[in-house]
Amino acid sequence: MSMTVIKPGMLSSFQDRGREGYQHQGIPAAGAMDERAHRLANALAGNDGDPATLEITLAGPTLRFDATACFALAGADLGATLNGQDIPQHRPLIARAGDILAFGARPATGVRAYLAVHGGFALPPVMGSEATYLRSGFGGFQGRALAKGDEIPLRRPLAGGRDLDALQKDLWNVRVYLPAALGNKRRETIRFLPGMHWPEFSPASRRAFTESEFRISPQSDRMGYRLQGPALSMSQPRQMLSEAACFGTVQVPSGGEAIILMADRQTTGGYPKIAQIATVDLPALAQCAPGQTLRFQQVELEEAQRLDGERERAFAQLRDALAPLRALLA
């Protein structure tokens, strides 16, 4: 009734949509870097709610299923195989007891894949969430990334006595059409809204942010992406009070190198905020690797809200379309 870690991979941790309602107590939200892929994997595995998925970074783990399970993969294509055979993403698949799930070389695009199992992993919630916050060591599985020999319990393995070949065939025949709003299309630019302190930045800095190319520094992780590019500065530097920090906020320390706050961001920040990445583009940003270049495009609030609403309607549409899948697994 579990899954055993044979090789842990580079960085594999359990994440859901984050730990909400505790930032005022100094507790970060954490959660999936690519929420779109996390939600998509859960939907394709027939899950309701928000059970944690395994967020897999670059070099994936090798895992052995010790019980029969239905699983699905989304996000970056990390060359997944089951018992040495290539398997597709965005499909519900059956693993039997003893089957080995492994991942291959680094993909051409994207850095994070998400593994969901039907019923979810049996992880103890911490403050209402199964997300791992690695820096403080809580949530997920023992508050850390996977290690060799870990045995991860499954909350609801597939019931014994089922004809697994027939079930796999029936699952394969379920038509899965991803709405365009949920596609993993690579963007030429990352859309943003002006931040709280946008008007206080110099005209040259505002122009540089919208017209120049920035490179993601090697000093980047789940907490934040440090950008290498033109130095940004305010017209008149001043002291600021710390304020709540959000996923996608672009802060500029005194050195002029912008930092995009990511999933493991701190709860507050006192640097000036030049921009806020549009929510709809956070998944694309999360799939970018150190060394990759970014360009930014300003959008209006109404457009950002329209895009976000379009994505939520697409998820609702997908959920309705996958009702036959959930019925097969019930």
Q: How would you characterize the overall build of this protein?
A:
With 330 residues, this protein is of the alpha+beta class. Helices cover 19% and strands 24% of the residues. The strands form four sheets. An eight-stranded mixed β-sheet has the order 20-13-14-17-16-19-12-21. The longest helix is centred in the C-terminal third of the chain and has 21 residues.
| pLDDT averaged over residues | 93
Number of helices: 6
Largest sheet: 8 strands, mixed
Q: Spell out the helices and strands N to C.
A: EEHEEEEEEEEEHEHEEEEEEEHEEHH
Q: What's the total count of β strands?
A: 21
Beta-strand content bin: 15-25%
Characterize the overall form. Answer: elongated
Our Rg estimate from Cα atoms comes to: 21 Å
The percent range for helix content is 10-25%
Oligomer: single chain
For the largest sheet, list the strands in their spatial order: 20-13-14-17-16-19-12-21
Distance linking N and C termini: 18 Å
Low-confidence runs: none
What is the strand and helix layout of this fold?
Elements: E1 2-7, E2 11-15, H1 35-44, E3 53-57, E4 62-65, E5 69-75, E6 81-82, E7 85-86, E8 93-95, E9 100-102, E10 112-117, E11 151-153, H2 164-173, E12 190-194, H3 203-211, E13 214-216, E14 224-228, E15 243-244, E16 249-251, E17 259-261, E18 268-269, E19 273-277, H4 282-286, E20 293-294, E21 296-298, H5 301-321, H6 323-329
Parallel strand pairs: 12-21
Antiparallel strand pairs: 1-4, 1-11, 2-3, 3-10, 4-9, 5-8, 5-10, 6-7, 6-9, 12-19, 13-14, 13-20, 14-17, 15-18, 16-17, 16-19
